[in-house]
Amino acid sequence: MNKLPPKRKKATSVTSRDSEPSASSAEDTFDPENPATATITVTAAEVEELSETEERDRLHLERRVEKAFFEAGKALAELRDRRLYRSTHSTFEEYCKDRFGFERRHPYRLIEAAGVVDNLIKMCPNWTQNQIEDDPATVYSDQRQILPTSEGQVRPMTKLKPEEQQEVWQRAVEVAGGKVPTGRIVKDVVQRIMERTQVPNTYHLGEVCQILAKDNPELRGKGGCWGIVSAVNEFSCTVRMWDGEYTVGLKHLKSYNYLSAECEQMREICDRISRVYSDSLEETVKSLLQLLGKVNRAYLTAVEEKLLNVLESEYRRDITP
Question: Which residue intervals make up region (Disordered) (predicted)?
């Protein structure tokens, strides 16, 4: 006699049969004649809400993560200003490279970015300094203050005026739908601000200008020096100085308004200094040439002329007759 196939057991729910079925659970069913109609019970997991303390802790920790580059910039600024690197390194740049692996420009970017964030924090006048330092996740007007979370988001704003920085950030947050905007969004908003306030480049070739190095680490050591415009760009000029050519933004230039004859005199002086200068010179000689490069008149005194003559006879590179 043929044996009957074993009887399949009916699937049961993980919930008790004695309990009433809820909206999120139902008993498993299985029809041997039609397996495709099987029903499997899925019990919805209940998500535990954060307590008020946990929510506050989460916001606090998130803000600490967001403030990482800001705190780094503030610390670097203090290390630089107080020269706390002087016991081991002669320059701030060497210290940052050896200690943190930062290339020359990076620590200055972090310092500039921290300055921008400090300015953006001022948009919340009801915040106290203690609130900012002790509880960075402070709720303001029932909303968290949207602040930058990376140096790249801040970089396009570093050359703007404080009020322009605040305007750019507010607009960028709006474009991002009330969230932290990307660096690209910030850059686009900055470009629109620049186009609105664009000042035409009125400099001309051969014009003698003074270099204004304030707030521009790339021009360190060039403040007060003069240069001759060798190329006129849209928002900058290429300026020839005693040790080479530099591209300088318009706000870092100031014309001496010399007459054409005076500009020609300065061009001749620049040519003479350039023929003497090289990176292999002794530091004292470089310093003397730099002092001549800061002369704020269209001529050399008798002593300066003699000094340049001596340097020319000693160091001048060969000139084709």
Answer: 1-36
